[in-house]
């Protein structure tokens, strides 16, 4: 094994070692509204579901780094979510991976990335922020809490208020996602992504005969 103590690593080294260890990560393409009413979109892979009551998920947002012409600035997504309290998480599958990644360019705050990359905005039901039509799944969300964990990074806790699924993705009787039809893209390290077509099914067995297998 190769060993590292966190204290001896630079922020950049920590970033690459941590993000390279946690994969594949889902990608949230977050839409939010700027103070000028323009819709902003940006991808975030420091993202995951946390609980269902309340229905919370977390997104880690750092400052623009020294590779950017906006170095040290807060990201528009964080500013918009804090100011407006609403946003939409659009899930990313292979069909929209390219445009979603292009939304990650450090566009100036007054540029609407969505139009620039060729995606389409449609109105949401319960929040003022539009969702992305081409996304297979979209969650309309309200801000639950922002944790400013350091000078560089904030963790946004979002609460899902409504969800949209492409029609073929939901079994309406069971009220479940047809996971065999949903093919989210996963992010590995840096610009490396993976498809999720190749599946294996491994039910958790019951501890004794009286129990039922968990599905
Ligand atoms: C696939 C992908 C995932 C990303 N994940 C994150 C992330 O989890 N946290 C973060 O702060 N930036 C992340 N970024 C970078 C932001 O998307 C990028 O800084 C973007 O320009 C922010 O836009 P905004 O200023 O409109 O919010 C990611 C970029 C890509 C391409």
Automatic annotation (TrEMBL):
Family of this protein: Belongs to the flavoredoxin family.
Name by which UniProt lists this protein: Flavin reductase family protein
Sorted UniProt keywords: Flavoprotein, FMN, Plasmid
InterPro entries the record matches: Flavin_Rdtase-like_dom, Split_barrel_FMN-bd
GO molecular function: FMN binding; oxidoreductase activity, acting on the CH-NH group of donors, NAD or NADP as acceptor
Cofactors (names): FMN
């Amino acid at each position: 094994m190769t060993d590292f103590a966190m204290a001896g690593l630079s922020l950049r080294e920590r970033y690459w070692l941590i993000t390279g260890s946690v994969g594949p990560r889902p990608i949230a393409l977050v839409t939010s509204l700027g103070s000028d009413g323009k819709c902003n979109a940006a991808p975030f892979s420091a993202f995951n579901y946390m609980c269902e009551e309340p229905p919370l998920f977390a997104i880690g947002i750092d400052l623009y780094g020294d590779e950017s012409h906006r170095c040290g600035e807060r990201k528009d997504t964080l500013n918009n979510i804090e100011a407006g309290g609403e946003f939409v998480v659009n899930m990313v599958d292979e069909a929209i991976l390219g445009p979603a990644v292009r939304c990650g360019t450090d566009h100036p705050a007054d540029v609407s990335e969505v139009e620039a990359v060729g995606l389409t905005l449609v109105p949401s039901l319960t929040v003022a922020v539009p969702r992305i039509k081409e996304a297979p799944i979209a969650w309309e969300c309200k801000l639950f809490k922002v944790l400013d964990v350091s000078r560089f990074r904030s963790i946004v806790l979002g609460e899902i208020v409504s969800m949209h699924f492409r029609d073929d993705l939901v079994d309406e009787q069971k009220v479940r996602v047809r996971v065999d039809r949903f093919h989210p893209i996963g992010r590995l390290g840096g610009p490396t992504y993976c498809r999720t077509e190749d599946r294996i099914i491994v039910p958790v067995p019951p501890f004794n005969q009286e129990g039922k297998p968990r599905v």
